[in-house]
Amino acid sequence: MSYRVELFLNAAETLRHAGPHLEARPAEHNLILTLLQQRADSGDAGRYWIVRQESEVVGVVVQSPLTFIAALSPMGPDAARRAAGVIARSGVPLPGVQGDAATAAAFAGHWAEVSHAVARPVLGARLFRLEHLDDLAEPETTDGRPRRADQKDLTLVTEWFDAFAREVGETRADPAAVARRVAGQQISLWEPAGRPVCLVARSVPSAGMARIGPVYTPEAERRRGYAAACVSWVSRELLDAGHGCVLYTDLANPTSNSVYRALGYRAIAELVRYEFGVPVAGADTKALPLRSTATQ
Q: Residue 282: left if φ>0, alpha if ψ -120 to 50, beta else—which one?
């Protein structure tokens, strides 16, 4: 099979070419779709590759910001290997990738061959989906009520985004991006007695699907049902508005996986994140010198 890999530096143009392909599977492609839409709106820099088989789009790779790992849409292993080879040989400093397990493995394996670098799996995740209000189960009753975060909560919300990033080993959130999400009413807080104890964020719906996350509860407030209650409330709002919901969980966290299943979410995919190390000493390193790892 013949594959062609095209590089774009404009997110809006990438969406024009790849949008129909991505929107055909909005749950599996939600992360890619929302990243492209956010970058199209903000104008922030990025690299976007479209993989075609003949004239048909079969995969998309997104790297934005330019120091972050790349996100892969689901694609066949041959397409993933072709994308990895083209990107590696172009000299792009790619510190890692994440995507569904089969796609990410094929890409990372070929990247390691071409660049003579170490490809190391560092995170396993699961993608959950909830599409029908009838499937949403009520969580156990817990103290408190939800509300939207507003400007007066910005300092606390930013601190919690940073705490979440540290806990899961991700790059610190851009404060300007957090402020935009607060202004866009995409952050909800759970409050018993008027005291915020949990944060649940959501994305702007794309192709009828919104992504929930991050979900963060400070350590001292955990195991009291706050996250389940707040996620349930946010999910109900989205479902009432006619949108489906997706969310990601860390496979190393059995609590979150069981909580979302109890709410009615169903697993639809397993994902893996790989980090790429420096090329092996003494190997032919024509491909690229890799920078230190950053995550998205």
A: left
CA distances from 59 to 15, 70, 169, 198, 209 (A): 12, 13, 27, 36, 19
Which candidate, 73, 64, 19, places its Cα nearest to that of 39? 64
The span from the CA of 9 to the CA of 21, in Å, is 19
Residue whose entry in the numeric block shows the structure tokens 């939600």: 30
What separation in angstroms does the CA of 164 have from each of 38, 131, 161, 199? 21, 26, 5, 10
Average pLDDT over residues 84-107: 96
Give the number of C-alpha atoms closer than 13 A to the C-alpha of residue 151, restricted to the C-beta side.
0
- The pLDDT value recorded for residue 289 is 29
Element (H, E) at 191: strand 187-191
Helix axis angle for 30-42 and 11-23, nearest 10°, is 160
State residue 293's pLDDT score.
26
In this structure, are residues 163 and 272 in contact, taking their beta carbons and an 8 Å threshold? Answer: no
Q: Is 227 helix (H, G, I), strand (E, B) or coil?
A: helix
Q: How far apart are CA 215 and CA 194, in angstroms?
A: 19
Tens of pLDDT, residue by residue over 217-238, are 999 999 999 999 999 999 999 9
pLDDT value at residue 23: 97
What element of type H or E holds 8? strand 3-8
Q: Are 190 and 146 in contact (CB under 8 A)?
A: yes
Phi, psi of 45 (to 5 degrees): -70, 150
Residues with Cβ within 8 Å of residue 231, at least 6 apart in sequence: 200, 212, 215, 247, 259, 260, 263
